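Structure in, sequence out. Go:
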């Protein structure tokens, strides 16, 4: 494991060592950063408005705290993250990569005996006892392509992710997950239009276990918050049913990318379809007792995004961004229906995001930018045997203003002001009061109130950049995000463990190094 990680990092930093720093906009303006980041792992996007090299190193520290949160979200979270990203062209070869490592610490997290990667799937343990959690993530995404002819570029992308979660309070979580995806594809062009096609092949495995240091908590019913349950749906759970789960997963799918100039706009579009199959066992594959799965979960994800950018006269620039992600998942579980072919748990989500940026005086020492964004989120989850149906949708409206100052001697400053408001569109919850479970009280009721809560927020941030040794540029940045909940009308028939209210404070501070060529 350590050798593979060392090899990946060695190859990656060899690329970044030749990354190029230029006194241009890809290191300064938000719109140009969005464009260049999309090109890192896409040979198709890289063909439009070509850049030969790019590299950024980032060290970030994020913290968040407050009671405006979901049931399976910690009150406090602290997460240092290191990111290295970039691409470079070496003759006919092109190599791009994004490496990330973070080590997050969560305090006062209850009902969270699972990883935080697949939030739509089910089949995991939970307990109402709040405790401290530590999570680590190693991930690297790479793209390697080779130009056979001017209009034919085969490529292969790889996504590698290693995750670990651990709890420090009985029942103590231990979760280790490994994901590997390969995306082979080919890119071609037709005059000024570029098209890429790729497939998705992936596998994952995970082991989840709960352990007790105090044996009395494990066997006694005198401590109800320390009793662990297995969640087999959305409200269907069994007390102390299992303390070990082995997951073996599969990913399959395909995608298409387009890049081209339409009138005076540069257009980048991506569409993908992915099928995820999750199988759960009580015993590992190496065991003689490993047979058929106890539960399965199938998730079908369709995603689409399109970005359009336009450079106008007198330093004016516009960007229009849109993305949509639709998820539909169903389960099969021997514990709930007695058959893997009968569906009990259903989930359906839709996320839509749209943004518009307008920048002017880009070629002057003082540039200004205005923008607006709209986000719509719909989430519907049902447990048929328990009679639970939670159907929610929310809208987030956000406006922002950014100012850029270009000083002498390569100095630059950036300041952003971003107020926003979130409100519910449709929120409904139905359940059978005669079939109540701890999951209903501990998780569903709280998430229902969170979805019904409207809140306003304000985010302010800034970055200072200056030339460092070797003409590399170093950026120091910070931001603070404060959101406050409005008053909420409570239902008399619900008794949640806690009600989301008050505020949430999110902040981060960090360093960025923009690399130059040797």
């Amino acid at each position: 494991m350590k050798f593979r990680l060392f090899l990946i990092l060695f190859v990656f930093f060899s690329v970044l060592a030749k990354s190029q720093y230029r006194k241009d906009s890809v290191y300064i303006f938000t719109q140009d950063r969005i464009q260049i980041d999309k090109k890192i792992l896409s040979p198709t996007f890289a063909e439009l408005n070509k850049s030969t090299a790019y590299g950024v190193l980032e060290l970030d520290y994020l913290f968040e705290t407050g009671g405006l949160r979901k049931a399976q979200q910690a009150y406090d979270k602290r997460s240092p993250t290191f990111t290295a990203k970039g691409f470079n062209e070496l003759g006919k070869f092109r190599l791009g990569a994004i490496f990330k490592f973070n080590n997050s610490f969560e305090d006062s997290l209850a009902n969270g005996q699972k990883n935080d990667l697949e939030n739509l799937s089910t089949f995991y343990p939970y307990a109402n006892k709040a405790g401290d959690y530590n999570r680590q993530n190693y991930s690297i995404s790479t793209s390697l392509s080779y130009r056979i002819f001017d209009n034919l570029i085969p490529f292969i992308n790889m996504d590698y992710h290693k995750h670990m979660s651990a709890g420090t309070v009985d029942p103590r979580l231990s979760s280790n997950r490994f994901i590997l995806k390969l995306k082979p594809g080919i890119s071609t062009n037709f005059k000024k239009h570029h098209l890429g096609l790729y497939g998705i092949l992936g596998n994952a495995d995970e082991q989840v276990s709960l352990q007790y240091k105090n044996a009395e908590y494990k066997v006694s019913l005198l401590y109800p918050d320390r009793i662990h349950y297995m969640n087999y749906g959305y409200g269907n759970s069994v007390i102390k049913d299992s303390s070990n789960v082995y997951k073996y997963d599969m990913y399959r799918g395909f995608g298409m990318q387009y890049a081209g100039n339409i009138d005076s706009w540069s257009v980048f579009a991506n569409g993908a379809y992915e099928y995820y199959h999750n199988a759960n066992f009580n015993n590992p594959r190496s065991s003689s007792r490993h047979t058929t799965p106890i539960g399965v979960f199938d998730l079908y994800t369709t995603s689409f995004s399109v970005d359009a950018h336009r450079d106008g006269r007198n330093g004016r620039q516009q960007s229009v961004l849109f993305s949509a992600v639709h998820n539909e998942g169903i389960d099969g579980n021997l514990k709930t229906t007695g058959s893997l072919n009968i569906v009990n748990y259903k989930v359906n989500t839709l996320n839509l995001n749209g943004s518009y940026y307008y920048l002017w005086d880009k070629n002057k020492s003082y540039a200004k930018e205005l923008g607006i964004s709209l986000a719509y989120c719909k989430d519907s989850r049902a447990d048929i045997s328990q009679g639970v149906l939670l159907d929610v949708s929310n809208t987030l409206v956000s406006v922002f203003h950014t100012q850029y100052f270009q000083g002498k001697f390569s100095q630059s400053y950036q300041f952003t002001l971003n107020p926003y408001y979130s409100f519910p569109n449709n929120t409904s919850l139905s359940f059978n009061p005669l079939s109540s479970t701890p999951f209903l009280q501990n998780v569903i009721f709280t998430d229902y109130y969170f979805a019904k809560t409207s809140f306003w927020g304000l985010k302010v941030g800034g970055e200072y950049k200056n030339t460092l040794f070797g003409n590399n540029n170093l950026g120091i940045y910070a931001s603070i995000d404060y959101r406050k909940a409005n008053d909420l009308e409570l239902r008399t028939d619900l008794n949640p463990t806690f009600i989301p209210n008050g505020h949430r404070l999110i902040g981060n501070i960090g360093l960025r190094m923009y690399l130059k060529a040797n």
